[in-house]
Amino acid sequence: MDPDSYQKAWHAQSSQTRVTIDADLLRKEVQRSEQNFRAMIFGRDFRELAIGLVMLPLWFYLGHRYSLPWTWWLAIPAITWVCLFIVVDRIRHKQWPSRPGEPLIDCVNSSLTQVEHQIWLLRNVFWWYLLPFTIAIMAFFTQSAWLNNSGFWPITFALAPFVLFLLVLYGFVYYLNQYAVRRDLVPRREELLTLRASLGDETTGEHVSATTLDDIKNPGVLGQALFVTVLSAVAVALMFLADSWFPSGNHALQSNRGTPATFANLITDLRREKKLVGLAAMVTVDGQVVASAVDGERKVDSGVELEIDDRWHLGAIAQSITATMIARLVESGQLSWSTTVGECFPEAQIHDDWKPVTFKELLTNTAGAPANFPIGIWLEKPALGPECTLARRKAVLDVLAEKPVHPPGEKYEYSNVGYTIAAAMVEKITGQTWDSLVRREVFDPLSLTGTGFGPPKSPDESLPQPRGHRPLPGSKLAVGDDVDNTPIIGPAGGVHMSLADLSAFGTEHLRGDRGTGKLLSAETYKLLHAPTLGQYACGWVRNQPGTAIPYTVYWHNGTNTLWYALVVFIPEKNMVVAVTSNDGDTTQAEDAAWKIVRFAINDLKPAADFPRKSPFAGVRWQQSQPEVQIGGEWVKLVSLDDVSAAEIVTFSQQTYGSKWQKR
Asked: Which residues pair with 452 in a beta bridge?
């Protein structure tokens, strides 16, 4: 026989070589390997549960701290499900250690059962581990895209990068788990199956292959069968990445679908640039909200985020509300624009120069009234109602006993006192309190439900509403929810409203200026909006078109040194802009507010793109007579919303000049 033949015979024989192994030694090696495997599985499950228990309170804190959308909270049941699944799985598949003297075949079978169960878990990891997180995160991404974009394709394009990233991430996680199955668990199962097949009657010292024993003694691959325990942390990072790309730091985006991201970014950037505690804005066109955003805290360093439906102190915007209430009483015949101070208080000691002063002069700040009451009046805090009415009348009569600062009707001077005098006159004539008249004549007819007097109530325990803030060098000091100007001057600066209600009030005046108001006639609205001396009308300032804003703008702002508010309406744009802040830094808040107004007018959206509402398919002209198309037929237009066609034509000619037919 040649050497090669001998060599082949030797290798063939050596591959079948079997050695006799002591059964106790083999059992100990199997048990040691099984113990290591159990420890590895326990360590993995412990880490998963620990991460889950840490993530639950963290998720609650982050959701509350940043006022994240409701889809953020879907991760709570996902985390809870995974934690409970692991606990229940361990209870159902308890890993009992081998008992002393237990047959070797039983030890092998026990190890094999554990390995096969782990293979099942990892092969199904998508269903019980990845899918719950996928649903939660995808819902969050989808809502973020939906809130920040309008239209199918913009939402799709905004969502696509996140979907792709999530697919890649979870695909990689799934691959790692399947790789662990192929490289670690399946070979181990094969080794155990081979060992079990090679076992006969272990008490007789049955031969076992040397290679099988060597594998059992060196189970180094077991430590690789792990889950990716950082998955939840990665999910948090992804969600905050989405939150930074889809800025939801304001609840306008959460409550007003379609708000342009540029508008939301502007509010956030301006609040930070001006170092305001909070800033909010709403833009409406034809009474419909086209953009709204809010950023900041209800109380500095509280962690309680502002909401789009919060209420805001309006300061001197209350003057336009008081003027509107008085106009309603005039139209109902209870008052007259020509009613004088002397007629209202015939029994009081009034300086002769005050006696002929009328409502119109008081409301246009041309009555010669001082800007403010003496300091002693500001310290009084009477309760709203009869007590405040009596205190107001006393304060007013003290002023009226002195000579006016300027001759009535000759000079404009902004005055809180003038509006307080007008309110005291109304209370004397009607026998009703100013606040009850405002609610009856303005708030209720316009269905303004987010309104009240003084600052909005906001206890420290829950902070359901914003607090005002006093600016200090390098910081802001939150004040109590009762800190305000004296209620005596409430008619000049003691009202709070939500942004939506402030916008609705502005829209009423916008429509009134266009002849379609609900509360007052077109004639009365023109009177309220017409300045007497300079730019100031009855609670409104009229700015002529300029370089920055090429339209006629009606506006009023207000502050009690703790809050700031601005409301603007632009008839040519059919637009109302309302801006509020719970910060008394008036200079910075005012600068931010007018930047928002200019952005809304010039950059928010081209005027042609704003929605138009028309019941007609078309309009054409027969000289100056409009005809409208209804159901394919052309008919003569007689009136629209109880406004005659002649009035519409006249308004258009006066407002738009040569372009009146197009407008």
From this structure: 496
Q: b/e string for 564-574 if b means 16 or more Cβ within 10 A? A: bbbbbbbbbbb
Q: Taking every pair of C-alpha atoms in the chain, what is the biggest distance, in angstroms? A: 146
pLDDT given at position 147:
60
What pLDDT was estimated at residue 7? 52
- Tell me how far CA of residue 474 lies from CA of 227, 471, 477, 590, in angstroms: 49, 8, 10, 19
Torsion of CA 97, 103, 107, 110, to 10 degrees: -90
Share of the chain residues as helix, strand and coil, in percent rounded to the nearest 5? 55, 15, 35
Secondary element (H or E) of residue 89: helix 75-92
Specify which residues 618 forms β-bridges with: 629
Q: How far is CA 123 from CA 126, 173, 178, 227, in A?
A: 8, 12, 6, 12
pLDDT at residue 186 in the model:
87
Of the pLDDT bands very low, low, confident and very high (cuts 50, 70, 90), residue 55 is confident
Residue 349: burial class (beta carbons within 10 Å; 0-12, 13-18, 19+): exposed
CA distance 635 to 630: 7
Give strand pairing partners of 20: 207
Q: At what angle do helices 416-430 and 386-400 cross, to 10 degrees?
A: 120
- Under DSSP, is residue 555 helix (H, G, I), strand (E, B) or coil? strand
Q: What pLDDT is recorded for position 235? A: 57
Question: CA-to-CA distance for 238 and 259, rounded, in angstroms?
Answer: 23
Quote the distance between the C-alpha of residue 583 and its chain's center: 19
CA distance 437 to 22: 102
Burial class of residue 634 (count of CB atoms within 10 Å of its CB; 0-12, 13-18, 19+)? middle
Look at residue 208 and tell me whether its pLDDT is greater than 60.
no
> pTM of the prediction?
0.58
180, 282 Cβ separation under 8 angstroms? no
**Chain Cα centroid distance, residue 548:** 30
How many residues can be counted in the chain?
663
Look up residue 430 and give its two tokens: 């009607």
**What number of other Cβ atoms are within 10 A of residue 635's Cβ?**
11
Is the separation of the CB atoms in 532 and 312 below 8 Å?
Answer: no
From CA 330, how far away is CA 336, in angstroms rounded?
5
Is residue 617's pLDDT more than 70? no
Coil/strand/helix, residue 622: strand
Q: Classify burial at 45, counting beta carbons within 10 Å of its beta carbon; exposed 0-12, middle 13-18, buried 19 or more.
A: middle
Q: Provide the angle, in degrees to the nearest 10, between the axes of the packed helices 23-65 and 231-245.
A: 20
Query: What does the alpha-carbon distance between residue 270 and residue 250 come to, in Å, rounded to a whole number?
Result: 13
Confidence of residue 5 (pLDDT cuts 50, 70, 90): low
Whether the Cβ atoms of residue 75 and residue 59 lie closer than 8 Å to each other: yes
Mean pLDDT of the chain: 82
Strand partners, 311: 498
Identify the three-state secondary structure at position 627.
Answer: strand
Sign, Cα dihedral of 362, 363, 368, 370: positive
Report d(CA 554, CA 533) in Å as an integer: 15
Three-state SS for 203-270 is HHCCEEEHHHHHHHHCCHHHHHCCCCCCHHHHHHHHHHHHHHHCCCCCCHHHHCCCCCHHHHHHHHHH
Contact 497, 450 (CB under 8 A): yes
